[in-house]
Design goal:
Elements lengths: L1 E7 L5 E7 L2 H8 L4 E3 L2 E15 L2 E12 L1
Parallel strand pairs: 1-5
Antiparallel strand pairs: 1-2, 3-4, 4-5
Protein name: Thymidylate synthase
């Protein structure tokens, strides 16, 4: 299980934060033609895998950056 965060690349605005067991599937889908949110349509730009410490545990999250189209 991993946190997945979608961010608008230009403004840094967080579009959605979720937890998923299928991170590879979400990343593959995000790299498709477009991703639609209530605030508009977006195109994949790049992603980062970030590691952080919380409650003494090392955790990871996938941050997916998108551009509005």
């Amino acid at each position: 299980m991993m946190n997945v965060i979608f961010i608008e690349a230009v403004s840094g605005t967080e579009l959605l934060q979720m937890v998923s067991h299928d991170v590879a599937g979400i990343l593959a889908a995000a790299q498709g033609e477009s991703v639609t949110f209530p605030v508009g349509h977006f195109k994949y730009e790049f992603h980062n895998l970030d590691f952080y410490e919380e409650d003494g545990e090392i955790r990871q999250e996938l941050v997916i950056y998108l551009n509005k189209i």
